[in-house]
Amino acid sequence: MQRTKKEELLQFAIYIARSAGKNTLSHFRNGVQVDRKADDSPVTIADREAEKWMRDRITETYPEHGIIGEEFGIQGENRSVQWILDPVDGTHSFIHGVPLYTTLVGVTIDGEPEIGVIYAPVTDELCEAALELGARYNGQDCRVADVRSLSRATLLSTDVTTIREQGLFGKFENLLDSCRLHRTWGDAYGHMMVATGRADIMFDPVLNLWDAAPLLPILQESGGVFLDLKGRASIDGGNGFSSNEVLAGNVISAMEPSGK
């Protein structure tokens, strides 16, 4: 795809992520009703309204493109360009009034993740990237930190309960014991922390396509990596972590089956 066309898609991704994210603020800390999906995960009107708004804008502007969203599924399967949407990443944070939820937009071109946007509406932080076009945080170039040993690394993760439910706690404990500091500033916000050099590793035991799609281009363009636990740069591996290239091998080694 031509550079100018990719730049156009990136700017549109920024527009819909920022606008839809701001739309969620009318429901934030406002006693929003929580419903349960078939898998018992929570969903609110904020999720549904934001995704519908993004879908409508995409369909109006790029009717030839496909859309995959957490709330409303697949539209235009097998299209060359796919928009992958997560209107509220971190719904638990949103429900509990924690300002670290985000709105995510990823774009794949011929099956490859090329564009990613993470927008945190409450804190008004936006991290965006397109392959070969660099990564930026609030308009300024961003880069992963140059920490080279786990003993100096700040590790982020989602909740430990999910890690245990996935049968990964023993392996995660190896990583936890190796790192300097651990905090649970999780979901996509944690990956944005790594991309902007404010943390060194973010580990996610469960990732859906719409969670992971924006992360790979953002981490790669900020000088880091986004890998699943098999070491693949994949958005459909079901789990994943972000770090710089030096730490990545240490993370995988710590999580190997030979661990605790």
Structure description:
Helix 1 runs antiparallel to helix 2. By secondary structure, the protein is of the alpha+beta class. It is globular. The chain has nine helices and 15 strands. A hairpin with a 2-residue loop joins strand 6 and strand 7. An eight-stranded mixed sheet has the order 4-3-5-6-7-8-9-10, sandwiched between helices. A five-stranded mixed sheet has the order 12-11-13-15-14, with helices on both faces. It folds into two domains: 139 residues, Fructose-1,6-Bisphosphatase, Chain A, domain 1 (2-Layer Sandwich); 105 residues, D-Maltodextrin-Binding Protein, domain 2 (3-Layer(aba) Sandwich).
Oligomer: single chain
Detail the poorly predicted runs: none
CATH homologous superfamily identity of the largest domain: Fructose-1,6-Bisphosphatase, subunit A, domain 1
CATH top level of the largest domain is Alpha Beta
Q: Considering DSSP H and I runs of 4 or more, what fraction of the residues is helical?
A: 25-40%
Class based on secondary structure composition and strand pairing: alpha+beta
How is the CATH topology of the largest domain named? Fructose-1,6-Bisphosphatase, Chain A, domain 1
Tell me the count of domains: 2
**CATH architecture descriptor of the largest domain:** 2-Layer Sandwich
The shape is globular
Strand % is 25-35%
Order of helices and strands: HEEHEEEHEEEEEEHHEHEHHEEH
N-to-C CA distance: 46 Å
Largest sheet: 8 strands, mixed
Task: Count every helix, treating DSSP H or I runs of 4 or more residues as helices.
Answer: 9
How many beta-strand elements?
A: 15
The main sheet orders its strands as 4-3-5-6-7-8-9-10
